[in-house]
Amino acid sequence: MAAITIQPKAFCKPILHAAKYPHLAVNGLLLAEKSKDGSKAVNFVDAIPLFHGSITLSPMLEIALTTVEKVTESRNLCIAGYYQANQHKSDSKPTDCAQRIGDRIAEYFPSAYIFMIDNSSFNREDIHHVFKIYRQKSKDWDLVQEEARLPTTPGELVFTLLEGKQHRQLCDFDNHLDDISLSFENESLGEQIDKLL
Amino acid sequence: MGFEEARALLRKWRDEKERRSDEVLDVWANILEGKAHRLGDETWLVYEQVFIASLDCNQISTAGDCLRMLIDKFGNTNRVMKLRAMKDEAVGDFEGAVETYERILEKDKNDSASKKRLIAIHKAKNNTRDAIDELVKYLDVFSTDTEAWEELCDLYLLEQDYSKAAFCMEELIMANPHNHVFYQKYAEIKFTEGDGKNMEIARTNFAKAVQLNPGNLRALYGFLLAAANLVSSKDKKNNARYSAWAGQKVVEFYSNHCPQKKEMAKKVVDAILENLKLA
Hints:
Chain A contains six helices and seven strands, in the order βαββαβαβββααα.
């Protein structure tokens, strides 16, 4: 059984977030089901896009983490991972900031992962390699070798959404802070994704 | 969307310097192209805008079409030469681009646009340090260039050099003392730097941002967090008061603007204030 399963919403939302702000770094949180039998397998079911542009400043990150914790409590999920796309096309290494956030998540969810978006895999052929996944080994974050289980036809799914300009509808925590009527849970986008399955 | 609406939208994005390149191309392709002659004075600004948007979206042939129109109209002015060089950058010919910018600078050593493009090329090559060094030299000469100070701040943040990033914001605040966003970003950087003195400076500047714009939710949350962080280290009574006030204001804000999320906001504020009791 795969150690990591990525469900459609958890797969698509980070990619749409990166596509909405192609010239900026973006980051967000990954939500998983609470582990039932103490198993280390993680099933990522959704993602919450957080920031674009300045992603390294702490105050809004603190607020976002506290807010998402409260929101996930009511959905019986937990924060199990973090994703980031660096600003530069060729740079997909986890930054210090990414590692620190990963450390913080791992305090509460020991099987936490960091997903770095590989900007150069942003095409139909390579999209299933778009996430470079890291797991914490003692203090460092190492690249995970085994394959994550992805949704079927991930390329088809994501590119249908991109061609339908769904990335423009995506709302991150930054957008919410600018206009609090916008929901960073992106419920209607989630429905669009479900409809395509 | 009609012609006038499309034209107004492109103007709005130009004025607000919004980078919405794929939307610009949609508006151009679906509404304005073929009717460009009706744009009057704005025609050439729109061609330039569509040109840059095309480069952003890797639509090199559309970029070429726009460039041809601009060359026919204006010839090889510095501004048009800069656009030619940007097209070289977009296809990865940095050497060719650098040559063009240096040629422009030979004729006019104060051409700031070319200097900024040379710095952008360092960014494109992921040479953050070189970009910073050149931008610092640029700002020695063009010290009132707001966009350049903002760019330098972001470059320092990439390098996690928070004190130099903060310095950039100080320059911006001096030149723009009524801009609430600058106080807020300065406060965020000071908060991130951490340690007692910086946290107090963060709290003061978040407060200033709220004073200038009570609708700045980031500043309100920032003030709440900074005061909460200071309760354990100094002036317990006042900081506790400030954080309680800020918490109340946040909940009020949600109550007034988005009541369905008020409960969520209350839980967040309670969680932050709860941590105070443990401190």
